[in-house]
TrEMBL record:
Protein's GO biological process: methylation
Domain Methyltransferase stretches: 66-169
Source organism per UniProt: Methanobacterium formicicum
UniProt keyword terms in alphabetical order: Methyltransferase, Transferase
Coiled-coil intervals, chain numbering: none
Protein name: Type 11 methyltransferase
GO molecular function annotations of the record: methyltransferase activity
InterPro entries documented for this protein: Methyltranfer_dom (IPR025714), SAM-dependent_MTases_sf (IPR029063)
Length: 281
């Protein structure tokens, strides 16, 4: 709220920004991937995609956890974050909308001799605080980017956490590669809402969070161009045959070959931002 004096009169102007509304508006024209089918379709490939990603290690190094803590891992996927958390915590609730992802997580947990992980095949938007129960620590690793009305979910997450919350979201201009590919195909390109929306929504909620860039080497590595094209198809939406041909030619000309024989996008490195806060005593 701001007051401006004009002559003898003082005019009150409301300039409060609706960050949640802007977030929702930005999501409207982006590929819809926040559904079980989309994640089920890539579940079997997810382990391979994550093999050379040092992001999990970077995030886990920032999460403070005691051995008697309970953890809620929202959007847990195949358990790349969940498993290490369960090795430190007394119990973990692993939540994901993909039943296929949870099947892989359970297999990975069994292989790691862990029996302190409970799974929940639901999205955070569809559960209440009472459904989930209180947890000492809440983690949402790269899982809130497509959530609508995120302000309501952030408030819910804050209420669930007893000690601390850790969220990772897109960095500024992080989806530029997808936009470049859309422009190559003559499609309209749109910006994905990034971490600054969430930071400001939290601020409006009275939550004054810490913000850190996660300096990770998050890249996607592939054994061949067809595998890269398959991942790109998932990232930017369905492709027709002409579009596939255009992208295949582009990838063949621009992908970089690594020393171990895999290939990667020359400009496809992702940036992630960690937003975290501790609950007041």
């Amino acid at each position: 709220m701001k007051c401006i004096k004009t002559g003898e009169n003082e005019v009150e102007i409301n300039y409060k920004v609706d960050w949640n509304g802007l977030w929702n508006k930005s999501l409207q024209n982006l590929p819809k991937k926040n559904n079980p089918e989309s994640w089920d379709n890539i579940a079997s490939k997810f382990n391979e995609w994550m093999e050379k990603d040092d992001y999990p290690e970077k995030l886990l190094n920032r999460i403070e956890l005691d051995s008697n803590d309970s953890v809620l891992d929202i959007g847990c996927g195949n358990g790349v974050i969940t498993i290490p958390l369960a090795q430190k915590a007394i119990k973990v609730t692993a939540m994901d909308i993909s039943s296929k992802m949870l099947e892989i997580l359970k297999k990975n947990a069994k292989n790691s001799d862990l029996n302190n992980i409970n799974t929940c095949n639901r999205r955070i938007e569809d559960v209440t605080e009472e459904d989930v129960g209180k947890h000492d620590v809440v983690v949402a690793s790269r899982s809130l980017n497509g959530v609508s009305d995120i302000g309501k979910e952030l408030e819910k997450i804050n209420n669930i956490a007893k000690k601390s919350v850790y969220l990772t979201l897109w960095g500024a201009d992080n989806r530029r590669f997808e936009r470049e590919m859309a422009q190559l195909l003559g499609r309209e390109s749109h910006r994905h809402p990034d971490y600054i929306y969430v930071y400001n929504i939290l601020h409006d909620l009275g939550i004054y969070a810490n913000v850190e860039m996660l300096e990770s080497n998050t890249r996607n590595y592939y054994s061949n161009v067809e595998e890269a094209l398959d991942r790109l198809r998932w990232r930017i939406g369905d492709l027709n045959k002409d579009e596939e041909s255009i992208l295949r030619e582009y990838l063949e000309e621009n992908m970089i070959k690594t020393t171990d024989g895999t290939i990667t996008y020359s400009n496809g490195k992702a940036d992630w931002v960690l937003i975290w806060w501790k609950k007041s005593e």
